[in-house]
Specification:
The protein is of the alpha/beta class. The protein has eleven helices and 17 strands. The structure holds alpha-L-sorbopyranose (SOE).
């Protein structure tokens, strides 16, 4: 089997999900190319070495620029904080490396556009990891829509809620600083929801939004270890939170459907509550990531006396990706979506094809998100170009 060398930049929570997928996808799926975990790159040598030892990356680097000049690297996997995506992706694309990039795509739509243009100009395969698209139950929602089972779509109702910063003692991690993250849950979480909404309903043309801040000052995070969910606080000094804590938006899709989106890190009890409902002329469907193997489906075609939402467990081998995993009813989890992404990405490379979502989708989603921020600031509705 042809081998293809992967270099991953960054080694946090996302680095784990990617390493796991690069390592194991080949054991479950038939692939024409085999990924080789060649280099892990982190500016902290110790972190890089720990990653290499734990996951089996063959070598370490501490400067990502080296990766773009190395002839033996085919894929660059970008797993670093958002503010670094643009620079690394543009350099990687110019160097002819295929790119597997974490979301949100970048700090702005202009940066996203530059990434898209650089990737297209060099003809590489580019992928933006909105992993939830590759959940079999979400694929089922798409299939039902394509088959006309939901009919003309009237409404998208989405929410992505978490609670990891409700505690005022939670420190000022990079995700809470605009220069590193671009925005708060609006970019981190609404980007996922907008990606799913574009995938399932279509492009968005108009947007209105409001944002709020509940805690504006936090203690400075301990050096070396500030990450989402698990950071520890050092109470020595404080700094300003420069992103919103919650962002809600209302949109109109190009096809006339109306949508609402809620993104918050201040929803106690909601850990990774990525939820959507779609309502159409023939029926409805609803998905909740915390029950990710299931899709709720309502059909107006059912006889009146048995109408109601049905729960479909999307684990039969007819559901996308499931034939490669376990027998029906043996459910899959968060990490499987990353395996599915790696598989589709490698297949796109092997066939000279492409994969979605990619930098184009990232750019389109970023235009919506930026429009929403403009609306929140000016109090006006924004029509997207
Ligand atoms: C943190 O909010 C986070 O890790 C996001 O960045 C991911 O994209 C999401 O899938 C889970 O939560």
């Amino acid at each position: 089997m042809k081998k293809i060398n992967v270099a991953m930049v960054g080694g946090g929570f996302m680095g784990k999900t990617h390493s796991h997928a690069w390592k194991n996808a080949v054991h479950f799926f038939d692939l024409d190319v085999q990924p080789v975990m060649k280099v892990i790159c982190d500016n902290n040598k110790k972190t890089a070495q720990q990653y290499a030892d734990n996951w089996g990356w063959a070598e370490i680097e501490t400067d990502w620029q080296t990766l773009t000049t190395r002839k033996d690297i085919d894929i660059i996997d970008i797993c670093v904080p958002t503010y670094l995506h643009h620079e690394i992706a543009v350099a990687a694309a110019r160097a002819g490396k295929h790119i597997f990039c974490e979301k949100p795509i970048a700090l702005s739509a202009a940066q996203a556009q530059a990434m898209y243009e650089a990737a297209e100009a060099s003809g590489i395969v580019h992928y933006l990891n909105h992993n939830y698209r590759r959940c079999p139950a979400v694929r089922l929602a798409r299939q039902l829509i394509e088959e006309g089972k939901i009919g003309r779509i009237f409404h998208w109702r989405g929410a992505y809620l978490q609670d990891w910063i409700v505690n005022p003692d939670f420190p000022l991690v990079w995700q809470l600083q605009r220069q590193y993250a671009g925005a708060g849950p609006h970019f981190d979480l609404n980007s996922h929801s907008v990606d799913l909404a574009r995938y399932l309903v279509g492009d968005i043309s108009r947007v209105t939004a409001m944002t709020s801040n509940f805690i504006t000052e936090r203690s400075v995070a301990e050096a070396g270890g500030p990450t989402a969910f698990s950071a520890k606080t050092s109470r020595k000094s404080t700094g300003k939170v420069t992103v919103e804590d919650a962002a809600f938006m209302v949109v109109q899709f190009e096809n006339g459907a109306l949508g609402s989106f809620e993104a918050s890190r201040f929803a106690p009890g909601r850990k990774n509550y990525n939820y959507f409902e779609i309502y159409g002329s023939k029926g409805s469907c609803a998905f909740n990531f915390e029950r990710m193997n299931e899709l709720q489906v309502f059909s107006r075609d059912d006889p009146a006396n048995t109408q109601g939402f049905r729960t479909i467990l999307a684990t039969e081998s007819v559901h996308p990706y499931m034939a490669a995993w376990w027998p029906p009813g043996h459910i899959i989890g968060y990490e499987h979506e990353f395996h599915h992404a790696v598989v589709d990405f490698l297949r796109a490379i092997a066939t000279g094809g492409s994969i979605e979502p990619n930098f184009y989708d990232g750019m389109k989603a970023m235009q919506v998100l930026e429009g929403a921020l403009e609306s929140a600031e000016t109090g006006k509705r924004v029509t997207l170009a």
